Fold each of these.
Amino acid sequence: MSDNPNTPSTSENQNTAVTTDFGYKQVDKSQKASMVANVFDSVAAKYDVMNDLMSLGIHRLWKRYTIDCSGARAGHKILDIAGGTGDLTAKFSRLVGPTGNVTLADINLSMLTVGRDKLRDRGLISNIDYVQADAEALPFPDNSFDIVTMAFGLRNVTEKQNALNSIYRVLKPGGRLLVLEFSKPTTEQLSKLYDMYSFHVLPKMGQLVANDGESYQYLAESIRMHPDQETLKGMFEKAGFEQCDYKNLTGGIVALHRGYKF
Amino acid sequence: MPASALFSATIERLINQMLSMDPDSAARLKPLAGSRFVIFVTPLPFGIELHFSDRVDVLTTQQPRDALIASLTAADCCIQTSLDTLPTLKDTSQLTRLIQEKKLNLDGELRIAQQVSALFQQLDIDWEEHLAEHTNDVLAHEVFSAGKRMHNTLLTFTRKLSRTVGNAVVEEKQLAAHRLAVMHFNDEVSELRDDVARAEVRLQKLEEQANKN
C-alpha cells in the first residue's frame, strides 16, 4: 500500500521546472512559499503541542541527537535555520555561552514570534538574534557561522539545492551543516505502518487539537515528497559539502544529514 | 530512537532537578559557568559531556577520546575511568592515587574535576521540605518520621539478627571458631613462624661452622 502518487522532485528538475510540489499538489514555484507560510501561520500557536503529540515526544530526542552531533562549543557562532519555536536555539544558546552567538532564522514571522517569546520567557536573551530570512537567500556575509542546523525545515523550501548552496556560502571553512528531516523508513513493514499513521491518524489529530486537519495532511504529503537519504546526500555534495554522511533515526522515519565545508 | 539521546536527557533532567532542590548549588555552579567536563566510562560506547551555565546541559559525544583531548581548552577537563572506579571519584583526595594506579586518566584542568565533584558531593537536599510542597507540613513530617523509625527498627533488627546468627554458628552449633580462638591461633602461628626463623638462622650458623672445620 502506498499513499504516494508522485515521486519526489529531484535536485535537477527542481531548478528547471516552473511548478513544484506542495504536498502531492503541483503548484507554481512562486506560490509555494506563501502556501507554506499559510500552513505555519495556522499551526504556529499549537506547533510544540502537536509535535509532542504526533511524535510521542520523540522529536525532542531527534533534536537532542542533532545537538550531540553538532560539536557546539563556547564561542561558536551558530545559525538555526527554520528554527521555528527555538528548540535547538535554546540549548545552543547555553552551549556557546556569552562569547558565542546563535541566530534563529525562520521565513515565517508567526513561528519566529512564538519562538522569540518562548526563549525570552525562559530567560534566554543575551546571545540570540532573530532574523526573518529565506533559506534560499540567506542575508549573512560569506563564512559567518561555525555550525548551521536546519531541523524539519528543508522539505518546505521551494528550491532545496539553492538553500544548501546558500548555507554553504555562509558557513566558515571547517564548519558543518546538520539537516534533520523526515526521510524514508528502512523497512517495508515500518513504511506501511508509518503511512497508515501519517495519512489516517495525523490529519485527524491535527483537526482535533489544532483545528486544522489540512495542514497536517500537507505535512504527511510533504514528507513523502522530500528527497530520500541518498538523494539528499547527493545534493549536499553538489553544494560543495565534504565528508557527507547521514544517520537514520527511528528506522529512517527521520534522518540526520551532516556535511562539512573545508 | 537514539538511545544515547534518551540517556543524556534522563541524566540531564535528574541532575538539574537535584540541583534545583538545593538552594546552595547555584553558588557552587557559578565558578563552573562556561566549563566543559567530559567523562568516558568503560564500557559505555560514547562519552558524556557536561556543559555548565546556570544549569547543566548533558550531551553525548561519539568523538574518540584522543580527538576530544586535542580540542580541550583551558575551561575543559576530560576523564576516562571504568564503572567500578566511578564511585571512588566521590573522594577528591583519591584522585592522585587513582591516576597513579592507572584507574583514572585525567586531561585538562584538574580544578574543574574538583569543582564538579564538590558540586555533587555537597548537595544538601531537604527532602521533607520538598515533599511538604506537594502535600503539607504535617503529612511530610509524619512520612519522614515513619521512614526514620522504620530505618532505625531495621537497623536494630539487623544487628540483633547478626548477633543471634553469630552466637548460633559459634557457640551452639560450633560451625565456626570464636573470635578469641582465631586470635589465639593467629598468635600461635606468629610464634611458630618466629621459632622457625630462629631455627633457620641457627642451622645456617652451624653449617658455616661445620664447613670451616
Amino acid sequence: MITPLENIIIKTICRLLIPFIQLFGLYVIAHGHGSPGGGFQGGCILAASFMLVVVAFDLPEAKRRFSEKMNNIFSSLGVFIYAWTGWMCLLLGANFLDYGILSKILPVNPVMARYYGMFSIEVGVGITVMAIMVSLFLDLVTGGKHEEALDE
Amino acid sequence: MKSLAFIVTVITGVLLIYATADFPDWGDPSSPASLHVSPRYIEKTVEETGVPNMVTSVLADYRGYDTLFETTVIFTAGITAVMLIRRPRK
Amino acid sequence: METIEFIIGKYNYWVYIILMMIGFYAMIGKRNLVKKLMGMNIFQWAIILYYVSIASKKGGATIPIIQNGHGEVTHAIEAAQYLNPLPHVLMLTAIVVGVSTTGVALALIIMIYRRFHTLEEDEIIDMLRATKK
C-alpha cells in the first residue's frame, strides 16, 4: 500500500518538474508528425507525470487534482474524438477516416487536411492512453481500494 | 513435468532455428518485407499526406481503421480492469 | 567462410528465438501465475524485437522520417534511404496493447489471490477439485 512520504525536497522538486513533464508530453503528441512521437508515447508521458504526483504526494491529493470521474470521462472522450473524426469524413461524403474531405470545413487544401485529421486522432489516442494508464496504475497499486489505501 | 516442458521448449527452439536458414539476411535491403508495400509508403507520404514521419502517416492515415480498433482495445482493457478490481467504499 | 557469413546474417534471429524460448518455458513450465505472466511478456518482447529488426536495411538507411520534409519536398525520396516503417507501426500498436493485456492479467491475478490466497497453480487446482466434490 502507499505510505505518505513527508519529504519537502521530493515534493518541491516534483512540483517544479511536473509542469515540464506535461509540457513535454503535449509536445510529443502535437509534434508527432515531424519527429519521433505520437499519441501513444505522449499519452504515456502524461500518465507518468500523474503517477509522479501519486508517488510524491499521496493518493487523495492526486485524486483531488484528477478525479476518477474525470478519468472515466477522458478515457471515453479519446475514443469518441477518434470515431467522431472518422464520422465527419463520412458525413462530408468520403470514406470512413478519409481525412482529405475535411478540406471542405477547414481552410486548407486536401493534403494539409489529412495532416490536421491525423493530428485530431492523435489527440484522441493520447487522451485515451493517458486516462487508461492512470486508471490501470491506480487500480493495480491499491488493489482497487483507493479509499483504504492510506489506512494501514 | 518440468523436464517435459524443457524438452518441448528445446524441440520448438531447434525447429525455429532450423527455419531461419530460409530467412533473408539481417539488414538485407532486398528482403521481401522491404519490397512489398513499404516503398510506396516511403515515397508517397509527404506528397499524399504532408507528414514527414512515416510511422505517424501509416499509423493514422493508411491504417487508421486498425488504430481505431486498437484504441478501442485499450479502452476495453482499462474498463475491464476497473470493473474487475475496483471496490468503491459504500 | 560461408559458415561465418551464414552466422553473421542470421544470428539476430537466433537471439530472438532464444529469448522467445525463455518466455515459452516460463509459460508452460512454471507453476506461479506471476511467473507465467512474466514469461508471456518476455515472449511478446522477443516478437517485438524481431519485427523491429526486420525493418532494418544496410547501406546508410536512416530512421523513417523524411529529412527536410515540411512543406514542399523537392529532393527525390528513394525507398533505400529510409528504414521500413511498417514493422515499426505494427509494433507501436502491439506495445500498447501488450501493456493493456498485462494490466488486465494483473487484475485477474489480484482477483485470484483474493479468492484463493495463493498464486501457485497446483494449489488452486487442488482447491477447485476439493470444492467440486
